[in-house]
């Protein structure tokens, strides 16, 4: 176990990681709830609401696009609706923190391209994300951006290390409000007791 000294060190590193990432991202995204000295605790909130007004891009679009960069999405719309909560842990090394920040900076450039009219507001890599392998290798590609832009959006995303999402865009709200239990029937559990 870590003990009190290890726990304190883990907490210090988590706070340091969050503030490092906040600093790298502050010129690209609005960061909410800074302390009096301009720092955050072990997590920070990126405000995506301004992009909905300028481009129609929402926090969920950014979260889905992060999958194309090889990252699981951060917390979406909690505790602030329309925002992302980034909570790096003490176990992530600087290279991983930088890759995540680089992905968010590149996504911000994609949003800027939409704002500048260089990309369509509906048919763009963010609104169509994530891009599963089945879609990328299909003989039918009707999107105004390349397959490479879809599946390999950064130099650190290569065929050798690509983590493919298994499905494309789903209706998250419907899924969150219509849960289906995939458990065996109760008789199965009762038989195990016997």
UniProtKB/TrEMBL annotation:
**Short name of one Pfam family:** GcvP2_C
Q: Name one GO molecular function term.
A: pyridoxal phosphate binding
Q: Name one GO biological process term.
A: glycine decarboxylation via glycine cleavage system
Question: Which Gene3D superfamilies does the UniProt record give?
Answer: Aspartate Aminotransferase, domain 1
The superkingdom listed in its UniProt entry is Eukaryota
What positions does the domain Glycine dehydrogenase C-terminal occupy? 10-131
Keywords (alphabetical) are: Pyridoxal phosphate
Name-wise, this protein is Glycine dehydrogenase
Phylogenetic lineage: Eukaryota, Metazoa, Ecdysozoa, Arthropoda, Chelicerata
């Amino acid at each position: 176990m870590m003990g009190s000294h290890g726990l304190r060190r883990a907490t210090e590193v988590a706070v340091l990681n969050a503030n490092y990432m906040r600093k790298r991202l502050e010129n690209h995204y609005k960061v909410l709830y800074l302390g009096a000295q301009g720092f955050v605790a072990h997590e920070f909130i990126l405000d995506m609401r301004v992009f909905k007004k300028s481009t129609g891009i929402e926090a969920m679009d950014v979260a889905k696009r992060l999958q194309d960069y090889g990252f699981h999405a951060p917390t979406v719309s909690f505790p602030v609706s329309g925002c992302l909560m980034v909570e790096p842990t003490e176990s992530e090394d600087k290279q991983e923190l930088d890759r995540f920040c680089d992905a968010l900076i590149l996504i911000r450039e994609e949003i800027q391209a939409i704002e500048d009219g260089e990309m369509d507001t509906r048919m763009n890599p963010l609104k169509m994300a994530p891009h599963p392998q089945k879609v990328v290798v299909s003989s039918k590609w009707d999107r105004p951006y390349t397959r490479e832009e879809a599946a390999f959006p950064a130099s650190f995303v290569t065929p050798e290390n690509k983590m493919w999402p298994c499905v494309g865009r789903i209706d998250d709200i419907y899924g969150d409000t219509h849960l289906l239990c995939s458990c065996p029937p109760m008789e199965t559990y009762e038989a195990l007791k016997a």
